[in-house]
Write a structure and sequence with these properties.
Blueprint: H1 3-14, E1 17-18, H2 22-25, E2 32-37, H3 55-59, H4 71-86, H5 88-109, E3 112-116, H6 136-139, E4 144-149, H7 152-159, E5 167-172, H8 180-188, E6 193-198, E7 214-216, E8 231-235, E9 249-250
Length: 252
């Protein structure tokens, strides 16, 4: 491996949070600086970080979009994931240092910091503790955390008010059948559902049936700003454009 590449890889592995990609920069005009943790999804690393992933979700994962398509980035994300499983408590403690640095950087820029821990994973961060015995939500009680999840159990806890008050979840639709009542229950309880749609960038999202409010999820990634009980439309990117499983809604 070339020296310059190896130095970049080391730096990327050492810095757990990313705060300068297409997702995060969209939040800056709204006054927010976002840090996102990207791991290797599903069982790409040899460890499963997406226990509720369906076949369609795994195949269409954003792991293949943007910088994620580069081998060097994928290698670094695999290394981060293995680092987490080698010592979860130490990883959370190291991540806490990165979050503290993000908070300081946001303060210098006059922005509000926020953190998305499951950029390409679906881990229960509300239960994971560092060496100090605290979860990240407990360590940073005034910081907004947010994620997407395919876990109906975690989403139920969220809409029931059983998640940390500074942790917002959006449920992610899949191609799995028989989920109609689950979706309806989430929306009725004030939770939001994200759905990937195969439609060209720049074209308006399709209207969904019913009176549920539709939000364009590509305008920014700050899901905690969305109105309660809405559907979030996300345009297909990367390998998701070629999806035939039903995970991505096809628009004529």
């Amino acid at each position: 491996m070339p020296k310059r590449c190896s130095q970049w890889l080391y730096k990327y592995m050492s810095t757990l949070l990313t705060s300068a990609d297409a997702k995060t920069t969209k939040g800056e005009p709204l006054g927010y600086l976002t840090g996102i943790l990207y791991l290797a999804p599903a069982n790409v690393s040899g460890f499963n970080v997406c226990p509720n992933a369906t076949a369609g979700c795994a195949a269409a994962c954003l792991y293949s979009a943007g910088r994620g398509k580069f081998t060097s980035v994928q290698t670094a994300r695999i290394a981060k994931t293995r680092r987490f499983f080698a010592s979860p408590k130490r990883f959370v403690s190291d991540l806490s240092k990165d979050i503290a640095a993000l908070v300081r950087r946001a303060d210098k820029k006059g922005l509000i910091p926020c953190v998305r821990l499951n950029g390409t994973s679906d881990l229960p961060w509300e239960k994971l503790k560092g060496d100090d015995g605290k979860t990240l939500m407990q360590a940073f009680p005034h910081l907004q955390f947010y994620d997407y999840t395919k876990s109906s159990e975690r989403m139920t806890e969220f809409v029931n008010g059983d998640m940390p008050p500074n942790y917002h979840l959006t449920f992610s639709r899949s191609e799995k059948g028989g989920m109609g009542s689950v979706y309806a229950g989430i929306l009725a309880s004030g939770g939001s559902i994200a759905s990937v749609v195969n439609i060209k960038r720049g074209n308006p999202l399709p209207a969904f049936s019913g009176s549920t409010q539709l939000v364009d999820g590509d305008e920014h990634d700050l899901r905690f700003l969305d109105p309660k009980g809405c559907i979030v439309g996300l345009r297909a990117k990367g390998d998701a454009i070629k999806d035939t499983s039903g995970f991505v809604l096809q628009v004529a």
